[in-house]
Design brief:
- The complex is a heterodimer of chains A (about 250) and B (about 300).
- Chain A contains 9 helices and 10 strands.
- Chain A is of the alpha/beta class and about 250 residues long.
- Chain A starts with a strand and ends with a helix.
- In chain A, about 45% of the residues are buried.
- The model of chain A has no long low-confidence stretch (mean pLDDT about 90).
- Chain B has about 300 residues and is mainly alpha-helical.
- Chain B has 14 helices and no strands.
- The N and C termini of chain B lie far apart (about 55 Å).
- Classes of the chains: A alpha/beta (about 250), B mainly alpha (about 300).
- At the A-B interface, helix 2 and helix 3 of A face helix 7 and helix 8 of B.
- The structure holds adenosine-5'-diphosphate (ADP) and magnesium ion.
- Adenosine-5'-diphosphate binds next to strand 2 and helix 1 of chain A.
C-alpha cells in the first residue's frame, strides 16, 4: 500500500501560495529527497503532511487513511515522525528525557487488567526503556544521556532530535534540513541511519535546500519552486533537468 | 524560623490547596485565571447549602465541585481556541463578573456582607490530609506519561502535537481538573473560616494565588507548597513593617521570574544538579569534545 499520498495539496497564506497543488506518492522503504530553494514551500508542505497546518486544498493520505483533516497528534499516532528545521527540544530536560518523549505517540499495548499486575507493568516499562537506550546508542549519545539539552556542546542537538524521531520506529520519517550545520561525521551517520530505516520498511522524506547531500542519499527527488512541484524522478536525471537547473541558478 | 504558629501553618496549607489549582493550568502552559471563580463557586455552594439547612460537608463539596466542573467544561468549549494572553484576559474578566454577581444577588449570596453559618470543621489534620493527598497525586502524575505530556504541552505545544499529544483534549482536561481543585479549596476555606465573603474572591485573590504559583514554580509538584509558604509567611516575618509586605512579595516575584523561571523549586533542582556535577569533577561537556576524533 502507498505510504504517503499527497494529492493536489495546497496551503495558501492569504495571497501567498506557499504550497500550490502539489501531488506525489511515497512507498514504504522509499527514500525521497524534497529539495528546492529557500522559501519554495518545503517546510510548509511538511507541516501540512504532519498536521501542524491544515491544507487549504487537496488531500493527504497516510497508509490509506485520509489525514488532511486530522490534527497533528492523530497523524503522529499513524506512525509519522519528524524533525524540525529549527531544532525544537526541551532545553531544561535531559537528553534521555527528550528521547523518551518520542515514545508518547506509541500506545501501551497492555490489556486493561495488567494495570493490577506489577509484573506486566514492569515488563512494559523495561521494553520502553530498552527502546530509548537503543535510540540513544544508535546516535552515539550514551555519554551525554543524562545531560540537560542546554548543556550539550553544539552539534549534538540534531542527534537528540533524530533519536526522538526514531525511538517510536515510525513508518514515515520526515527530516527537515537535518544536514544544516553538521559535520562530515554527522552526515555519514545520518546517511547510515536513513538507509537502516529504509531497509526496515520506513519511508523517508529528506528535505534540504542543498542538493549535494540529497543526491548522495536519495535515489529519488521531488523538487519544489514557488510552491509548486517542478520535478519528480530519479536523482540522477534531476541535475540535467532544465527546470531544476533554472530553480537553482543564483542560489 | 519564627512565625510558624499553628494558625500560620493552617493558612499555608489552606492556600496550598488553592495554589494547586493554579499549578494545574500553568503546568500545561495555559494562562487560565478563572480559578478564583471556581474557588468562589466551591465556597458559596457550601455556604448557600448550609444556609438552607444542608449541613453535610460532603454534599456541599460535591455540589460545588460538580457545578465548577460543568461550568469549566462549558467555558472551555467557548474559549478552547484562545491561547496565551487572550485566554488570560477572558478569564480575568470572568473574575470581575463573578464578583459583580455575588455582590448583586444578596438574597442568595448575602451580597457584600457575605454568608455566615458554615460549620467550622476544618482544622489542621484535615488540611494536612488534603495537601498530602494532592502531593501524592501530583508527584505520581509528574513521573508518569501524563506528566510528560503536560510538560511538553507547557514547553512546546507544537511539538507536543507532533508527538501524539491531543493538545485540545489535554488543555481541556487540565482546565476542568483545575476547576475541581479550586472548588475543593473554596469549600475547605468556607469550612475553615465559618463564613464566605466576596472579599475572598476578587482580583486581589487572583494576584495572590498567581504569585504563590509562580514563586513556587510549576515544574514540580512541591511548587505550590513552597509558594504558599513563602507568600503566606511574608506578612508574618515582616511583623512590624506590615506596610512593606506587598513590596517584598512583589520583589520576590520579580526576582523569581528573572532568575528562577522554573520557580524556587525548579531553580533549586537545577542548582542542585550543577552542584552535583561540579562536585563529581566532571567537565561540563562530559568530555564529548573529543567524540569525533576518537571515532
Ligand atoms: N505561517 C506562515 N504565514 C505566512 N507565510 C508563511 C508561513 N509559513 C511560511 N510562510 C511563507 O511561505 C513560503 C514558503 O516557506 P517555507 O515552507 O518555510 O519554505 P522552505 O522551507 O522551502 O524554505 C515563504 O514565502 C514563507 O515566508
Ligand atoms: Mg524550510
Amino acid at each position: 500500500m502507498t505510504l504517503l499520498s499527497v494529492r493536489e495539496a495546497s496551503k495558501h497564506f492569504g495571497a501567498l501560495r506557499a504550497v500550490n497543488e502539489v501531488s506525489f506518492d511515497l512507498e514504504p522503504g522509499e527514500i525521497c529527497g524534497l529539495v528546492g530553494p529557500n522559501g519554495s514551500g518545503k517546510t510548509t508542505l511538511v507541516n501540512v503532511i504532519t498536521g501542524v497546518l491544515s491544507p487549504t486544498g487537496g488531500s493527504v493520505g497516510i497508509a490509506g487513511v485520509e489525514s488532511s483533516q486530522l490534527r497533528s497528534h492523530a497523524i503522529a499516532r499513524l506512525g509519522v515522525s519528524r524533525t524540525f528545521q529549527l531544532i525544537r527540544l526541551l532545553r531544561f530536560s535531559s537528553v534521555r528525557e527528550n528521547v523518551r518523549m518520542g515514545l508518547l505517540p506509541v500506545p501501551s499495548k497492555l490489556p486493561l487488567r495488567s494495570w493490577v499486575q506489577p509484573a506486566a507493568l514492569g515488563a512494559d516499562r523495561r521494553r520502553r526503556s530498552a527502546l530509548v537506550d537503543e535510540a540513544i546508542e544508535r546516535l552515539d549519545l550514551e555519554h551525554v544521556s543524562s545531560r540537560l539539552v542546554r548543556e550539550l556542546p553544539f552539534g549534538l542537538e540534531r542527534r537528540v532530535e533524530l533519536a526522538r524521531a526514531l525511538v517510536s520506529k515510525p513508518q514515515l520519517l520526515i527530516l527537515d534540513e537535518p544536514a544544516a550545520g553538521v559535520t562530515a561525521a554527522d552526515m555519514r551517520d545520518l546517511n547510515r541511519i536513513i538507509q537502516e530505516e529504509s531497509s526496515r520498511g520506513c519511508g523517508v522524506l529528506l528535505v534540504d535546500h542543498n542538493l549535494r547531500f540529497v543526491l548522495d542519499t536519495c535515489p529519488r527527488l521531488v523538487v519544489m519552486n514557488f510552491g509548486q512541484l517542478i520535478y519528480d524522478g530519479t536523482s540522477a536525471a534531476a541535475v540535467d533537468e532544465p527546470r531544476v537547473r533554472e530553480a537553482y541558478v543564483g542560489t | 524560623m519564627a512565625g510558624f504558629t499553628p494558625t500560620a501553618i493552617e493558612l499555608i496549607l489552606l492556600n496550598a490547596v488553592g495554589v494547586f489549582s493554579v499549578y494545574i493550568v500553568l503546568s500545561g502552559g495555559l494562562f487560565a485565571f478563572a480559578f478564583v471563580v471556581f474557588m468562589g463557586i466551591g465556597a458559596y455552594a457550601a455556604a448557600i447549602l448550609a444556609s438552607h439547612g444542608h449541613s453535610s460537608m460532603l454534599v456541599q463539596a460535591l455540589t460545588g465541585i460538580g457545578i465548577a466542573a460543568v461550568s469549566a467544561m462549558l467555558l472551555f468549549l467557548m474559549v478552547a481556541r484562545l491561547r496565551g494572553i487572550y485566554l488570560g484576559i477572558v478569564t480575568v474578566g470572568l473574575t470581575a463578573i463573578f464578583g459583580a454577581l455575588i455582590n448583586n444577588f444578596p438574597h442568595l449570596t448575602g451580597g457584600p456582607l457575605g454568608l455566615p453559618g458554615v460549620s467550622l470543621n476544618v482544622h489542621l489534620p484535615a488540611l494536612i490530609a488534603a495537601v498530602g493527598f494532592l502531593c501524592v497525586v501530583f508527584a505520581a502524575i509528574q513521573h508518569s506519561k501524563l506528566g510528560r505530556r503536560v510538560k511538553l504541552l507547557r514547553t512546546d505545544p507544537l511539538v507536543a502535537g507532533t508527538l501524539g499529544v491531543n493538545v485540545r483534549l489535554l488543555s481541556g482536561g487540565l482546565f476542568v481538573a483545575s476547576s475541581v481543585v479550586a472548588a475543593f479549596a473554596g469549600c475547605l476555606q468556607a469550612h475553615y473560616l465559618g463564613f464566605v465573603s466576596p472579599d475572598s474572591f476578587n482580583f486581589t485573590t487572583l494576584i495572590l494565588f498567581l504569585e504563590m504559583a509562580v514563586i513556587g514554580g510549576v515544574s514540580h509538584w512541591a511548587g505550590p507548597i513552597v509558594g504558599a509558604l513563602v507568600v503566606t509567611m511574608i506578612p508574618q516575618w515582616l511583623q512590624s513593617f506590615q506596610i512593606l509586605s506587598p513590596v517584598v512579595s512583589g520583589a520576590i516575584l520579580l526576582l523569581t521570574i528573572l532568575f528562577l523561571p522554573e520557580g524556587i523549586v525548579g531553580g533549586v533542582l537545577v542548582l542542585g544538579r550543577s552542584a552535583v556535577i561540579a562536585l563529581r569533577g566532571e567537565p561540563r561537556n562530559g568530555g564529548v569534545g573529543t567524540r569525533t576524533e576518537t571515532r
